[in-house]
């Protein structure tokens, strides 16, 4: 029996290694390859397919029928024209920001838009940001919600407010199961609220923020479905959130009002929040572009709308690894994925090749951010100067690696939008 299992495993390994699943560019990428060969910058670029982005926006509107409650995450969409397009499309005026040095650049671009910090800032960052805002547009300070995760940080922020004679809008980070910091007990919550109440000349409560990314990753065992497990975890999260809101409403009634922001959600969980009576402000960003980290069952209606494209610089037969050339060439005869070697312009992004189908990074040769090596079979039909296409795993870091994003409609490049720097 053990021998049979061993043989079966060996057969499976040989099948996987020798199977050729390669395909040339499909019609969609073939058109893009042709366009980029004609009018592209002849270097690595990123692009957004606005037709697919519009479809994803429509999906969000279907799954979350309260578009005015949505808050778009700047770190996942770091492009001013893109953010403006989204605010117009959703008739919205809310952004979530994670980098204080972007704030001075964004405030003049988005008058009247509410900015909520998605993480607490070091006190020195707050001091510099407040000074910048006072120097450029003092009234814009009212657009910003500063996040505090502890009483100690609140006291630091209070000192800055007194130093600059300003009133800061304060959002309190609460732990609703994510366990990534924030207030995690009602006693600490009461202490923070009491200080805000006591120093109302310098501090104004703007709301709460309880991030719920853990809900999308809840483990489950048969016969419980992933959807049922997520719903149970979501209800538990809401129950915890509700406790904090109850304390605020009952014990600190002078701080409570209808315009308070009760934020939660994220790309994997936004659709769970429709209809609840607690959260009134839901963040999302990545699911609009759909990088690979968000290929989740409950986001199956979202299409990939953002890609990296880069030219093929060199094409070689076989695979030639230094010091083991004969061995690597011998193996290449029998492994379709090593039939051809392609060196591309740039590389080492947080991304995986998606077209042509059947391209692979070669760990034996090593990774490179200068001329990345990819291997594949002849069926990829790639030639020098053709473009290959990759899907990034996340947008919040990868988008910042490029100076601009190319905007594509109907497989044609129509604009270039600068990336926020």
From TrEMBL:
Organism listed in the record: Spartinivicinus poritis
EC number of this enzyme: 5.1.1.1
InterPro entries, per the entry: Ala_racemase_N, D-amino_acid_metab_enzyme, PLP-binding_barrel
Keyword Isomerase: yes
Pfam families, A to Z: Ala_racemase_N
Protein name: Alanine racemase
Keywords: Isomerase
Domain Alanine racemase N-terminal stretches: 48-286
